[in-house]
Automatic annotation (TrEMBL):
The keyword Nucleotide-binding does not apply. Keywords: Cytoplasm, Hydrolase, RNA-binding, tRNA-binding. GO terms for biological process: D-amino acid catabolic process. Coiled coil: none annotated. Gene3D superfamilies: D-tyrosyl-tRNA(Tyr) deacylase. A Gly-cisPro motif from one monomer fits into the active site of the other monomer to allow specific chiral rejection of L-amino acids. InterPro entries: Daa-tRNA_deacyls_DTD, DTD-like_sf. This is D-aminoacyl-tRNA deacylase. It is an enzyme of class 3 (hydrolase). Homodimer. A motif (Gly-cisPro motif, important for rejection of L-amino acids) lies at residues 138-139. GO terms for cellular component: cytoplasm. GO terms for molecular function: D-tyrosyl-tRNA(Tyr) deacylase activity; Gly-tRNA(Ala) deacylase activity; Ser(Gly)-tRNA(Ala) hydrolase activity; tRNA binding.
Length: 150
């Protein structure tokens, strides 16, 4: 699984001009799922995302997690994170999971995030054209790939 994590002051995602998920201060998670990804990858990411210390403490040092600040998460599935661009000009998505597998693992990931934070984690609509509006904070953008855990 590959994540782009962006610290935000606020964010929302719309489908067909209707907001389907929104948050205040927290993190927007763009989530790409490979065919080789499994639930263990999602569980590892849940812990990593919720404990990542990228929010400022009282001294202005990034020393707090989204859990520490009681922040929110917005999860959006994005298979284009798996684009291979080495050859030619048209990205290849050959390593992306099938829509059925990706949807199941994405929903599992969001469910486990919700359980960990003890609140609903809003999400985009899998497989739909979405418009994301967010106010980046920092900006702070982190890339995490479960294939590079060590």
């Amino acid at each position: 699984m590959r994540l782009v994590i962006q610290r935000v002051q606020s964010a929302n995602v719309s489908v067909a001009d209707k907001v389907v998920g929104k948050i205040g201060q927290g993190l927007t998670l763009l989530v790409g799922i490979e065919d080789a990804d499994i639930e263990e990858d999602a569980l590892w990411l849940v812990k990593k995302v919720t404990q990542l210390r990228i929010f400022d403490d009282e001294d202005g040092v990034m020393n707090k997690s989204v859990e520490d600040i009681n922040g929110e998460l917005l999860a959006i599935s994005q298979f284009t994170l798996l684009a291979k661009t080495k050859k030619g000009n048209r990205p290849s998505y050959i390593k992306a999971a099938s829509p059925e597998k990706a949807a199941a693992l994405f929903n599992f990931f969001v469910q486990k995030l919700s359980e960990r934070l003890e609140k609903e984690v809003p999400k985009g609509r899998f497989g739909e054209h979405m418009v994301i509006n967010q106010v980046n904070d920092g900006p702070v953008t982190i890339l995490i790939d479960t294939k590079n855990k060590e």
